[in-house]
């Protein structure tokens, strides 16, 4: 599971067998969310993550969207 970004207690990562559309998994505490970053950043699913943390994770995904996509393309090429 390659880590893309660690910031403010969030860990953004991919699973090695992930699939399109380009997305990133995010964990903080006991919660996890998945954001699609191909096109607009969009929450695909979440479990056990507080609304405040989801909002912060989405902001970070938007801020680092280009880097996430570049890392995806490098990893899955």
Shape descriptor: globular
**Domain unit count:** 1
Q: Helical segment tally?
A: 2
Number-wise, the strands total: 5
Commentary on this structure:
It is a single chain. This protein is an alpha+beta fold and 77 residues long. The chain has one domain (3-75). Helices cover 31% and strands 35% of the residues. It contains two helices and five strands, in the order βββββαα. The protein has helices at residues 51-63, 65-75; strands spanning 3-7, 10-13, 23-28, 31-36, 42-47. Strands 1-2-3-4-5 form a five-stranded antiparallel sheet, covered by helices on one side. β3 (23-28) and β4 (31-36) form a beta hairpin. The longest helix is centred in the C-terminal third of the chain and has 13 residues, at 51-63. It is globular, with a radius of gyration of 11 Å. The two termini are 16 Å apart. The relative contact order is 0.23.
Write a concise keyword list for the protein shown above.
single chain, 77 residues, alpha+beta, five-stranded antiparallel beta sheet, 5 strands, 35% strand, globular
Compact summary:
This protein is α+β, with helices and mostly antiparallel strands and about 80 residues long.
What layout of secondary structure does this protein have?
Blueprint: E1 3-7, E2 10-13, E3 23-28, E4 31-36, E5 42-47, H1 51-63, H2 65-75
Antiparallel strand pairs: 1-2, 2-3, 3-4, 4-5
């Amino acid at each position: 599971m390659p880590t893309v970004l660690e910031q403010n207690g969030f860990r953004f990562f991919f699973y090695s067998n992930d699939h399109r559309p380009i997305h990133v998994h995010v964990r903080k505490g006991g919660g996890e969310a998945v954001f699609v970053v191909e096109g607009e950043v969009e929450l695909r699913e979440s479990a056990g993550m507080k609304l405040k943390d989801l909002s912060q994770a989405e902001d970070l995904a938007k801020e680092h969207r280009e880097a996430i996509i570049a890392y995806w393309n490098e990893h899955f090429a």
